[in-house]
Specification:
With about 280 residues, the protein is an all-alpha fold. The protein contains 14 helices and no strands. The mean pLDDT is about 85. The chain is globular, with a radius of gyration of 24 Å. Helix content is about 75%, strand content about 0%. It comes from Micromonospora pallida.
Length: about 280
């Protein structure tokens, strides 16, 4: 029995290690390629270790002629504004759908949730037409406005979590003379930190990697986000894969840091959801 259990555990860890290797291999190859010179990349095998490694590609992207610093700043600003807007509006809407009682509440919620089944490309032209009519094309607010006021996925996720919080805690706030805003601030939000952290990571990753909408709504380099700038860099230097890999590595690094910071909250939210 002990031998069988050891073999089962060894097989499990071996499968997990292989899965992790397959998942991390593209990122490791990207980092390895980014510290090569174009000559090393052309003469050596793609899997060969660079000898010696160089930071020339990163220097070119930070202080060189093809710097990615302005698109990075624009992307950070877009993500911050969208995250603040989405979390605020989604929390308020989810609390209303979970705790307030008004005619047609469930009908409105499920109709709104059904928009998840509408593909983004189906609303691309109407969005572009509306923002062009508002003269917001090729502007900062043209990028952030369509996704600023919450999302069906975020509202659904928060609503289901809010409904799992005991009603007695809300009643205790009402007995003390508090209203809905006080209950939301002092009861709901402190208990929802894990799910809010998970939603924060999901929202940041989604809009950090957003490519199609910024590409359509902007036309100048002034409001070019990181994904569009990286794509332009790839089309401009199609043969210089070391520079392109350095750009993709820089674009991915902030997301890895964000996950490492919030990984404990993400795991906790999954555990709580599983217990419910």
């Amino acid at each position: 029995m002990v031998t069988r259990r050891v073999l089962a555990n060894a097989a499990t860890y071996l499968a997990l290690a292989l899965g992790a290797l397959l998942t991390l291999a593209p990122y490791l190859l990207s980092v390895q390629t980014s510290v090569k010179t174009p000559q090393q990349f052309a003469q050596q095998s793609p899997l060969a270790v660079p000898s010696p490694p160089t930071g020339q590609n990163y220097a070119e992207l930070v202080i060189g002629e093809h710097t990615l610093v302005p698109p990075l700043v624009i992307t950070v600003q877009v993500v911050i504004v969208v995250v603040l807007g989405q979390l605020t509006c989604s929390v308020l809407a989810a609390y209303a759908f979970a705790r307030l009682r008004f005619p047609g509440r469930d009908v409105v919620f499920w109709v709104y949730l059904s928009t998840l089944m509408v593909p983004f490309v189906a609303t691309l032209v109407p969005r572009f037409t509306m923002l062009s009519w508002l003269e917001l094309r090729d502007t900062f607010w043209g990028i952030v406005l369509p996704t600023l006021f919450g999302s069906p996925y975020a509202i659904f996720l928060l609503r289901e979590f809010f409904r799992g919080i005991p009603e007695d805690l809300i009643d205790a706030v009402r007995l003390d003379g508090g209203g809905h805003l006080r209950a939301l601030r002092h009861v709901i939000l402190p208990l929802s930190r894990p799910i809010l952290a998970t939603l924060l990571v999901i929202t940041v990753v989604t809009h950090w990697n957003d490519f199609l909408w910024p590409l359509v709504i902007t036309s100048s380099e002034r409001w070019r986000v990181l994904t569009v700038a990286t794509a332009a860099l790839q089309s401009q230097f199609n043969g210089n894969w070391t520079l392109v890999m350095a750009a993709t590595t820089l674009a991915t690094l902030p997301l890895l840091v964000l996950f490492l910071v919030f990984q404990r909250h993400i795991v906790k939210s999954i555990t709580i959801t599983g217990m419910k």
